Amino acid sequence: MSIQSLADMRKSYELKELDEKASNSLPHLQFESWLNEAIESKIPEPNAMTLATVGSDLRPSTRIVLVKGLGPEGLVWYTNYESRKGRELAGNPFASLQFHWVELERVVRIEGRVEKISPSESDTYFNSRPLDSRIGAWASPQSQVISSRTYLVTQAAKYGAKFLLNPPRPPHWGGYLLRPDRWEFWQGRRNRLHDRLLYTRSDEASQSWTRERLAP
């Protein structure tokens, strides 16, 4: 594909609209409504989100993770605490999430402070995972350089033999909660006059949100 053909690519967004009066006054409920619609629409991986963090060198990095819990407090995902994202969150606890549901012409962006969830909550989720996934959490030194795939297979066999059917949660693995202070809902519209609604609150203790329309 040439650079010129990339420049000529166009799509007209015409499926839906996002109106202040029709949206929920609470952003997490608006998000739940959109997520349920994405699930019901059979979109592949509707719970996949881009997680953006910033390291001590001020370089941003992104990766795809899966949201595994949500509510008024925020969104939860699970990972290796010693991974690049874990190390960056330890140094800078602020992060951004983005959902892109292409088929519905929608994007949701969420920003806020991140904290680890309780060990008991992480244990409960870890024990609900398939056995191979639980072994994999022990076998993979996430984000570290390894010699080959053979290393991972060998490590998985090692921990499988050690723990059999009952691997405990590794101390370096668990959940994070992002407590939002900013939500943005984007709905594609015709002629690039997209709908953008921004929800913000002054502090984490506040239960009230300010809802405003942004220019596209």
Protein model, in words:
This protein is an alpha+beta fold. It has one domain: Electron Transport, Fmn-binding Protein, Chain A (Pnp Oxidase, Chain A, Roll), CATH 2.30.110. It has helices at residues 3-7, 27-40, 84-91, 119-128, 131-139, 149-163, and strands at 48-54, 60-66, 69-71, 74-80, 94-101, 106-116, 173-187, 195-200, 210-213. Strands 1, 2, 3, 4, 5, 6, 7, 8 and 9 form a 9-stranded antiparallel beta sheet that branches. Helix 5 (131-139) crosses helix 6. The longest helix has 15 residues, at 149-163. The radius of gyration is 20 Å and the shape is globular. The mean pLDDT is 94.
Short structural description:
Helices cover 28% and strands 31% of the residues. It is α+β, with helices and mostly antiparallel strands and 216 residues long. It is globular.
Q: What is this structure's SSE topology?
A:
Layout: H1 3-7, H2 27-40, E1 48-54, E2 60-66, E3 69-71, E4 74-80, H3 84-91, E5 94-101, E6 106-116, H4 119-128, H5 131-139, H6 149-163, E7 173-187, E8 195-200, E9 210-213
Antiparallel strand pairs: 1-2, 1-5, 3-4, 4-7, 5-6, 6-7, 7-8, 8-9
Helix pairs in contact: 5-6
* CATH evolutionary superfamily: Electron Transport, Fmn-binding Protein, Chain A
Number of helices: 6
Shape category: globular
- From the helix content, strand content and strand pairing, which structural class follows? alpha+beta
The run of helices and strands is HHEEEEHEEHHHEEE
* Amount of helix: 25-40%
For the record, the count of structural domains works out to 1
| Radius of gyration from the alpha-carbon trace, in angstroms | 20 Å
CATH architecture: Roll
Q: What percent strand? A: 25-35%
First-last Cα distance: 29 Å
The counted number of beta strands is 9
Name of the top-level CATH class: Mainly Beta
Largest sheet descriptor: 9 strands, antiparallel
Report the uncertain regions.
none
Please tell me the overall pLDDT: 94
Here the CATH topology equals: Pnp Oxidase, Chain A
